[in-house]
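Changelog note: in this version the structure field was regenerated for every chain. One regenerated record is shown below for reference.
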Amino acid sequence: MERYKEEFIEFMVKSDVLKFGDFTLKSGRKSPFFMNAGAYVTGSQLSKLGEYYAKAIHDKYGDDFDVLFGPAYKGIPLSVVTAEAYSRLYGKEIKYSSNRKEEKDHGADMGSLLGYKIKDGDKVVMIEDVTTSGKSMEETVPIVRAQGDVEIVGLMVSLNRCEVGLSGDRSKSALDEVRDVYGFETGAIVSMKEVSEYLYNREIDGRIIIDDDIMEAINNYYKEYGVQ
């Protein structure tokens, strides 16, 4: 595993973004872990987060794209900090764009988008925090494609939970299903498999993050919801 991925796993834990315990997800599933990208709140955290996304996007998609689209609301800061980091790390100016929850009908920036207005010929990478079931793409993909003759190069999330998607097909993760349904590639900075393997019995800031009990809970969770 690349060093920046190992650093990102520790970064999630130290930022109190990735937690282990008993959680009820939006999907209704009972999960032994939870990731909340909204816990990145400081300038230094956001700067580092943008760098991790930029490195993962560069590794997966290269430089052949123009726009980072982050769906409202959490995707807005993700697209901004990643565009800044991409320019700083790789010397390419990438535009950021997001949707408005309510269309603005006045002013110079009226319309349904915040930031850059996507147009014909643009190549877009979409950016989100995490995709559990893939349901968010039902709203996001039509928004991007409605802007014109654009190419969605792919989707990048921070954590691949490695769970089944909306179809219930145990052979495909939610990210795999998004790829197959919408016809573009998907990627993640890290997968939950990488996270659990790296953190198992590893001490960070004086404590073991994933001990035997938590690992057993994770394994049981994936027996029910994981890709086989």
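Spot check on this record: Residues 43-61 form the longest helix (19 residues). Helices lie at 3-14, 43-61, 75-90, 137-145, 174-182, 192-199, 212-225.
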